[in-house]
Amino acid sequence: MDLFVTVTDFSGHDESLKLNSPPQVQETEHRITISFSTRGNTESFLAETPNLVFAARATASFPGAFPPFSAREIDTLIIARKISWPGRDAFLKRILPQHYAAGTAADTMLIDGSVLANAPFNQAIDALRNRPARREVDRRFVYIDPKPGKPSFRKARKPGEPPDTKPPGWLATIFGATSNIPREQPIRDSLDKLQGRSERIERMQAVIGSLHIEIERTVNDMLGRTWFLSKPTPARIEKWRAIANKKAAAAAGYSYPAYGHLKLVGVVDDMIASAKRACNESSHAHFRDLKDAIWQELRLRGLDSIAGAKGIGATAESIRFFREHDVRFRIRRLRFLARRLADEVEQNDTLDAEDRFAGVSAMHDCVYECLSLYIARETSAYMGEDFTIAVQNGVDAPGAVIDRMAEKRDLIMTDRLVDEKLFTALSNMEAEASRIMLSRLFGISAL
Predict the structure, then answer these.
(1) Each residue of 73-94: pLDDT tens digit?
(2) Would 193 be classed as within a structural domain?
(3) Structural domain containing residue 161
(4) Under 8 Å CB-to-CB from 240, ≥6 apart: which residues?
């Protein structure tokens, strides 16, 4: 579950913009989104009660109706009710990083988020990436209009009545500009973005659907047509995956470097995203410099070249790097496996119904358990405080950021743990169902 609450920083905070001329400018930002999520949390609640009350009270500060809000108000309630707020500093540091660094977070005045952003559609759309579906679904965005009907600063017209051309008075102008118009800004842009996303999903579904037969034929050619007759073990799963990756890279020929560099760009972007989650009080300029420093470090490590000898396959350095850092690929692979489980195994009438149910249930639980292992490794809480320190010093020591991330996540050992779990689940499935799942597992590795 994800919750996004929009508030407005009344005084604003500085944000730097990188331009051409001048090269950098300072701009005042007032928009703030307070986010809560159960993603990666081991606790059963969304957040501490004071955190939720903070967000609710801040977003309720409608201009002119309720006074601005600051953390001091919550502090007073905490003392009066004799309760604790252990996560206070961490919460304020997360949502007000610049103010916290300046020591003014508790005194920052917040008002209703509708002044600038009343409908956090972008945040909700971004949260979709963490919503894997067990089977094909239709996703619906439900928008509840907080103020349906005609705006209060304009007189309602009867059907067929021409619009009022009389200029609004000074009070109506001020009230409309500062309150009503921002709250009633149409959501057309957000709906257009949703429509574009839906169209891209439909195109990708058509492409993936047409590749199933080719994927199975490719896997059989790579591993031999009798590979699936061998009983899968964790060691064999790891070996088969390595063979599929190696042969896929070689078969791609001169097109592999483009694919490899695209993967590399994606991994670096994910690194910066993890760094931002771990150290959100740092400026945008810091992360731009950190990204440049990481690219420079990767070039020094030989990752400016992805292709192996004679431009075929992958270099040992790039293979090692992807094995240590490409967590998003692991997540995509398991989500793909979950979809195939629903599409091809659950609906396969040639399999025994009782055995199919037991095997599918065990595999379903296994896939999502494995998925949670990788998702947890994306969170800032998992990376730890020493990673945050590495990010703060990353511009001067980018290698420490790369190495600490690899050490903490330990994806190679996690892969072996996942293989053991998959082996156990595959052992509980019928031979045909097991073959389908293995074929899809190595098919996405091969592609």
Answers:
(1) 999 999 999 988 998 998 998 8
(2) no
(3) 152-186
(4) 223, 227, 438, 442
